[in-house]
Amino acid sequence: MRDLDLKAARLEGQLQATGSDDGGEPAQPNRSEQILLTFHSVVEGTVQEAAKNLFPDLNQHIVELARTFGVADLDSVNIQRNGRINAIKDGEKTPFDDFSRGERLRMRIATVIAMLRISTRRGAASHPGLLLIDAVGAEEVTTEPGRKLIMALRDLAEELPALQIILTTATPPLIDGLLSDERIITNDGDHMF
Question: Are 178 and 151 in contact (CB under 8 A)?
Answer without folding.
Answer: yes
